Amino acid sequence: MQRFYVVEKAKLQCTFGTSLGKLVVTSQRKLEIKGKLQATQKDKQLEPPFFGSCTCKSSNPPCSPALQEWQVPGRKAGIETDAFIMDDSSIQCGQGGIVTVVDANQDLVSTGEEEFELDKILPKFEGEIIFVNGYLSNPKMNTESHYNALMGKNPDEPDSGALTGENTNEHDRTHADDVYTADKHNHRTKRDKWQKLWEDEIKTRLWQPLSPLIRFSYTPEEKFQGYWNTKTNKMKGTELYAKHFNAIGNEHFINGSHGLGSNAAHRIDHGIAQGYSWAKKTWNIKAFEQIEEGKGENPYIETFSPAYKPVTVVGHSQGAAMAAGVAIGILKYAADMGYKKAPLNIIFLGVHQPKNLTGNEYEQLYNYKTKYLEVNNFYLKLLGEKEKTGREYLNSISDLFNPKYHKLKNERGIYEHLKKIVGNWPAFKDRCVQFTFANDRGDLVLRDGDIPGIDSACDPKGDTTLYSVEFFSKRIQIPSKYETDQDKLVVDLSNEESGIEGFIVIPPYIANRRFDFDALEKKDNPSREEKENGVEWGDYKSVCIQWGIAMAKYKKLKKEYVKMAEDNWHVPDYNRDTNILFKNLAHLKVDWEYIQTARWYAPMQAADLYAHFSPVGLINHKKILSDFVNYCDDNVGTTESIWERIKKVGNNKFYRIAIAENVDLKKDKDNLNKRIDDKAEVERKLKIKLIDTSIADTQYIKNVVDAFVKGNKAALEKVYKEPLKLNVGMKVIT
Burial code of 629-663, b = ≥16 C-beta within 10 A, e = fewer? Predict the structure, then answer.
């Protein structure tokens, strides 16, 4: 039978008492469960008024307990010579009553189903996993963030006036609403009968049909679990990770959504604060000295050491930078608790701002997008200049490349900031694996790509390039390194449509095949394969070719117009002149082809965003990588799924214990033989995978913790601030 250990403030009941009593623990100060002192057989004190009145006498006087000796059935475990009290223990009162345990005041630590005192024989190996989501982009659910973007308000910048919405709280970097722990989730699922009736019956019948029309915010489950568990991954996204990293039941979530324009360095520092705060409140590890003092007599106490409670952090998109910070914050807490080493696994997906974007590289991007592709003028300016009217939000994408705002310019990305602040960058990056498709380069997520130096489960070489697909009018314009060093595919558009002159270049390691699960609802008789994998629709390469053809036609007509009219054609004339019908035919032809480039640029951008979200929604999809080898010389060795590639690349670095298939994980934790095997694994094989906590024990990281966790205003002045983005350039204000 499973039995729970009793801790302070446990509720006791006396057969002669009129109310419940609460136990006071004074016998020891070393051992705690969830921050509560563990009770031993020496603990016999209760909080007044004890058990209320004593009914053993007709006058019912106030209770005055005279407790004798605790009776603890089953095998004994304890500290020194004192046995721990279990929830089935009892004690006789000298007044005649029998006192029993009604509520142990904790449901975390117990014996196994069998009557072995496993919890006091050997430590339990049990991981924790934290998921950090990216930008919450639903315009209805996160309206405030879209307002910020349209009005040019960057939440990172002090006194910006930006609204919070569903984004993370910038005024309190450790706000409880931005963390959804396993305990919070379990508490929400243990509802009483009437709450369940409301949720399951009334809400389902009445609220849900109306909710799409009137709801403007997420529930915690939608916001946190819903980001990672989707119908495209069969609602198993978090389960895949939790099972692999020994963390079933210990899934935690941190909000990494910061809004458009956020800087990676800012998000890393925010993550440090949240990671430190999470570790302090939730990790439940004891001080190193306490473990060392107690493990001789009570080996189970090592359960509360980092070696037996490894943490895995997974971050996507904007959440990748914050995940790095969360990991650092956890390491910093371990260092503060006296540990020189700790286990840590870090996984980055669809990485946003892996490195900086500034200087010549930024200028080249700006020129390519605005002067060559001319994407900064895609929308009709019917309401005038945005700066003057404040009403023209249709042209929002053009502001990404507006030199006034420098929205994409960043002095520090993840790479630069981590190298500056951690004590040992090579050691830190060795604990990480990343996966970002080479065509995850949509304008709205620029810049995306690989963090330099971190092992990639997508492109083993790493890919820090800026573009997913590029257009060239002539073959000679294509840099030779594209084919020789970067293995890019050159497509001659003359082979795709007669009379076309031009080339597109597509990188390797792309998300080419695309699958639509929403389309299943519209299909009368989907096949078994479609039910499993979704309905396949336009592949990435085909979309790129159509855009390339449109670009080639536009460039050709524009060149002919300039030669004929001896006047340059440019988009602003077309956009600002509502009298376009009176223009000459040649100009109108160029106008039309320009519109076609915009029409094909949009689906290409959608395809890039598909690649951006695939490592989350299609983490376990069996077909998305099936044509990988057509675009790359892959040496990872598996195209079964994104998840399988991540596991393979991380196989020799992840701190975890392998789990056999079809094992009842809950029961397996209490298996004596498994505890023996796990202890041997921790002490022999896994030691080499520990990371030095000194990596996070730097002055800068201390400043971040002091500033955002402890409220030290002086430390706040020492935290990095990204140079303010102004129309006169990047002016440093710190």
Answer: eebbebebeebebbbbbbbebbeeebbbbeeeeee
Tell me how crowded residue 172 is: count the other CB atoms within 10 A of its CB.
Answer: 13
* 101's tokens: 């345990």
Q: Which residues of the chain are under the pLDDT cut of 50?
A: 113-118, 190-194, 196, 213, 379-398, 572-582, 727-734
CATH number belonging to domain 1-121: 2.60.200
Query: According to the model, what pLDDT value does residue 387 have?
Result: 33
Name the token pair of 546. Answer: 């159509």
C-alpha to C-alpha distance for 390 and 396, rounded to whole angstroms: 11
3-state DSSP of 287-314: CHHHHHHHCCCCHHHHHHCHHHCCEEEE
* Rg from Cα positions in the chain: 31
Q: What is the pLDDT of residue 384?
A: 36
3-state secondary structure (DSSP) of residue 491: strand
Structure tokens at 631: 């675009």
The residue whose two tokens read 């497509």 is: 491
* C-alpha to C-alpha distance for 63 and 17, rounded to whole angstroms: 7
Query: Contact 394/400 with Cβ under 8 angstroms?
Result: no
Other residues' Cβ atoms within 10 Å of the Cβ of residue 441: 24
Cis previous bond, 49, omega within 30: yes
- Could you report the per-residue pLDDT of 403-449, keeping only the tens digit for each? 777 888 999 999 999 999 999 999 999 999 999 999 999 988 989 99
Question: How many residues would you count in the chain?
Answer: 734
Separation of alpha carbons 405 and 46, rounded Å: 65
The answer for residues whose C-beta is within 8 angstroms of residue 325's C-beta and 6 or more apart is: 267, 268, 269, 270, 271, 272, 273, 274, 275
Distance, in Å, from the CA atom of 227 to the CA atom of 319, rounded to the nearest integer, reads 12
What's the pLDDT score for residue 164?
74
Residue 455 near residue 649 (C-beta atoms within 8 A): yes
The sign of the dihedral angle between the CA atoms of 632, 638, 640, 644 is negative
Q: What is the pLDDT of residues 169-206, one digit of tens each?
A: 888 999 999 999 988 776 555 444 445 455 555 555 55
- Axis crossing angle, helix 414-421 with helix 264-278, rounded to the nearest 10: 50
User: What are the respective helix, strand and coil percentages of the chain, to the nearest 5?
Assistant: 40, 15, 45
pLDDT of residue 584: 65
Domain limits, the chain: 1-121, 128-190+218-355+643-731, 359-408, 514-619
End-to-end Cα spacing for the chain: 63
Give phi and psi for 245, each to the nearest 5.
Answer: -105, 25
Three-class DSSP labels, 115-162 = CCCHHHHCCCCCCEEEEECCCCCCCCCCHHHHHHHHCCCCCCCCCCCC
Could you tell me which of 534, 480, 542 has the C-alpha nearest to residue 512? 542
CA distance 656 to 247: 10
Q: How far apart are CA 263 and CA 312, in angstroms?
A: 24
Q: Give the pLDDT confidence score for residue 77 in this predicted structure.
A: 65
- Where does residue 314 rank: exposed (0-12), middle (13-18), buried (19+ CB within 10 A)? buried
Contact yes or no for 451/459 (Cβ under 8 A): no
- Output the CA torsion sign for 618, 622, 624, 625: positive
Asked if residues 705 and 272 have their Cβ atoms less than 8 Å apart, the reply is yes
* Token couple for 269: 């520092």
Quote the pLDDT of residue 386: 36
d(CA 325, CA 265): 9
Q: What's the pLDDT at 666?
A: 59
pTM: 0.80
b/e 327-349 (16+ beta carbons within 10 angstroms → b): bbbbbbbbbbbebebbbbbbbbb
- Concatenated DSSP letters for 210-246? HHHHH--S--HIIIIIHHH--GGGTT-HHHHHHHHTT
Kindly report the number of other CB atoms within 10 A of residue 694's CB atom. 15
